Amino acid sequence: MAQGKTVVVLGGGVGGIVAAHRLRKGLAREHRVILVERETSHVFSPSLLWLMIGERTPESISRPTARLVRRGIELVQGAAESIDPTARKVRVNGSEISGDYLVIALGAELAPELVPGLAAGGHNFYALAGAEALRDARLTVSRGRIVVLVAAMPFKCPAAPNEAAMLLEYDFRRRGLRSRIEVDLYTVEPGPMPVAGPQVSAALRAMIEAKGIGYHPEHAVRAVDPGKREIAFANGATARYDLLAYVPPHRAPLPVREAGLCGESGWVPVDRETLETRHPGVYAIGDVTGIMLTSIGKPLPKAGVFAHYEAEVVADNIIRAITGRGGPARFTGEGECFIETGDGRAGFGRGNFYAEPAPQVRLRPPSMMLHLGKVWYEKYWLFRRF
Ligand SMILES: Cc1cc2nc3c(=O)[nH]c(=O)nc-3n(C[C@H](O)[C@H](O)[C@H](O)COP(=O)(O)OP(=O)(O)OC[C@H]3O[C@@H](n4cnc5c(N)ncnc54)[C@H](O)[C@@H]3O)c2cc1C
Questions:
Q1: Ligand 1: which residues within 6 Å by Cβ?
Q2: Whole domain around residue 192: which residue ranges?
C-alpha cells in the first residue's frame, strides 16, 4: 500500500507512549513514528500517591524519555509550541514537523494559579515536585488537621483524591499520630467518583468515612489564605488546615487551546469511538479530550486507562489506513482502576462508561491481592514501555 507515511504523536505520557509503541510495532520501518515530548523523564503518575507517604522515590517511578528511542520510536525532545490541525503540522523547537496523521496526547495542564493562594498554601500532589514537598511536610506535622482538597472539575483520576486521603490517614496512623490528627476531604464533586453511579459513589464514601475521614462534597474553593491556613468556599464555609494536599484546576494545554481545537467544554471534542477530531487524520486521546456521556450528561472521566485504550484504537485504525490490514477498531468506553485504601490494600472498580441508560461500574472491596495487582501493574508499565 502507500509508502513512507509519517505519524506524529504529540505528548509522551500514557496515551502517547501506548500509541507510539503500537504504531511502531504495526508499521514497517519505511513509515515514521515521531513522538514529541517536552520532559526528559516520564513519571508514572499513579505512584505519586505512594511517593507522598514515603513508599517510593522519584527514581523508582521515573524513566528517561530517551529510552523510547530503543524501541524504534523517533523522539523529538521539546515543547510543541503551536499546532496547525488543518495542515497536520506542529512547531517544535522553532522547526516545523508535518505528518500524514497527528495524534494529540498532550494531557491536561495543571493550573493552581486559577485559585488565589492555592499554590502558596498547599502541596500539589498531582505533580512530582508537589508530591515530594508533601512527603517532607507531613513529617513536620504531629497534630492538627490534614485537608485534601479537589479544587475544580474535571480532574484526572477521580479515585486519586480519595486514595490520597485514605493513604494520608493510614500514614499518620502507622506513625502513631492518628489520635492527634484529623483528616478531611473537601471536594467540588457531589460525591466520590460520581460518574461511576450512585451505588459505587456511596460505597466509596462509606469506605472513606469508616476510616474517620470527614467527607465534604459540593465545596467549590474560592480562595486559600496561606497565612491563616484557611480555605474559603463559594458556599460561605471555611476550613482551617495544618497541611493542605490539593488537586489543582485542570485545563487543556495552551497550544491545543490556541489551535482552536477545544469545544465548549474547554477540551477537544472527538468521535467517541474513533477519537478523530473534526480535522481528518487528526486524533486526540486521553485527558485532552472532552467526551460527553449523553446518557447522564456528564463527561467521561479523565484517566490513564482510557488514554491507554483510546491510544490502541487510534493506532490500530492508523495502521489499518496505511497497510490495509485489520478491521476497524472502536473505543467501547470500558475502563478499570485500582483504589488504594491504605494498610497495603486496594479496591478495584471496573465497568463500561458508554453503557445505556447509564454507566455500569462495579466496585470490588479492598484486599491485599488487589494492592499487589496495582504494584505489579506499576512494575509492568515501567519495564514494558522503557
Ligand atoms: C496522583 C495520580 C494518580 C493517578 N492514578 C491513576 C490510576 O490509578 N489509574 C488511571 O487510569 N489513571 C490515573 N491517573 C491519571 C493518569 O495519570 C492520566 O489520566 C493519564 O496520564 C492521561 O494520559 P494522557 O496521555 O492523556 O496525558 P499525560 O499522561 O499527562 O501525558 C501528556 C504528556 O504530554 C506532555 N506535554 C504536555 N504539553 C506538551 C507540549 N506543549 N509539548 C510537548 N509535550 C507536552 C507532558 O509532558 C506529558 O508527558 C492518575 C493521575 C495522578 C496525578
A1: 11-16, 36-39, 45-46, 48-49, 79-80, 105-107, 126, 156-157, 160, 253, 255, 286-288, 302-305, 307, 337-338
A2: 110-249
